[in-house]
Amino acid sequence: MNYTPERFGKMRVGDFFDAIEGFFEMEADRFRRKAELIRTATTYIVNTQPIEGGARTAQQLWPFPWDKEEEGKVEVLTEEEAKRRQEAQDAFLLKNF
User: Fold this and answer.
1) Which of 24, 27, 59, 76 has the fewest CB atoms in 10 Å of its CB?
2) How many structural domains compose the chain?
3) Domain extent at residue 13
4) Side-chain half-sphere of 41: how many Cα atoms within 13 Å?
5) What totals of helices (H) and strands (E) does the chain contain, helices first?
6) With left for phi above 0 and alpha for psi between -120 and 50, is residue 54 left, alpha or beta?
7) Is this structure's pTM higher than 0.70?
8) 90: number of CA atoms within 13 Å, CB side?
9) Is residue 47 included in any domain, yes or no?
10) What is the residue-level pLDDT of the chain in tens, covering all 97 positions?
């Protein structure tokens, strides 16, 4: 994350978790771009040879988990549930810190 010790020391816990999440998203994106590049190159190589049924798309040749469209799952909280969760988090923090 390239933080100096001073900057890291001044960081809040929530900011730390946000930074970690951003770092892992960046790494996942980097992995995905490399995988897409390899899959595309492989598809070009395979499609240069005669294939029964014609040329294949990259997704047909080598499906990846992100090729499937996921339905958005949104959890809607009631005010009571949000309040209950906040109280549980507060109790945990007071007990453990």
Assistant:
1) 76
2) 1
3) 5-69
4) 6
5) 4, 0
6) left
7) no
8) 6
9) yes
10) 778 888 888 888 888 899 899 999 999 999 999 999 999 999 999 888 887 888 888 888 889 988 887 667 778 889 999 999 999 999 988 887 7
